Amino acid sequence: MRLNILAFAAGIIALQMQPVLPPAWPWALAGLLLESSDATIDAIKEAHEAATNFTLLLVAGHLLGVAWESLLHRENLVRAMITGRKRRQTSAGGD
């Protein structure tokens, strides 16, 4: 119990010193989790895995969207993203 109180105090101090010592807060969090139950650790691991899977889903969706739009517009959008240049649009009406 005493270790949790000290870890909490260290965390509060680290948050107060964040402009001076930005990398300190992860160590304070680790101190708070030091004596956590296995259920808590498992819940954190599950949340981390869910966030990872969601991020991978977003990446896959983005890649599919780029491929779809490239095929739909018959334009290499990946090259346009890398070079910053798209082909010039030609208007049918001569505007």
Question: Would you kindly provide a brief summary of this structure?
Answer:
This protein is mainly α. The protein contains 4 helices and no strands.
Q: What is the strand and helix layout of this fold?
A:
Layout: H1 2-16, H2 25-33, H3 38-73, H4 77-83
Helix pairs in contact: 1-2
Would you write up a description of this structure?
With 95 residues, this protein is an all-alpha fold. It is 71% helix and 0% strand. The protein folds into 2 domains: 1-35; 38-86, no CATH class. The termini are far apart.
The overall pLDDT average reads 76
Shape: elongated
| Radius of gyration, taken over Cα atoms and rounded to an integer in Å | 25 Å
Cα(first) to Cα(last) distance is: 76 Å
Level of helix content? Answer: over 70%
Report the total helices: 4
Helix and strand sequence: HHHH
According to DSSP, the number of beta strands is 0
| Uncertain residue ranges | none
Largest sheet: none
Structural class of the helices, strands and pairings?
A: mainly alpha
Report the β-strand fraction as a percent range: under 5%
Number of domains: 2
Q: What are its keywords?
A:
single chain
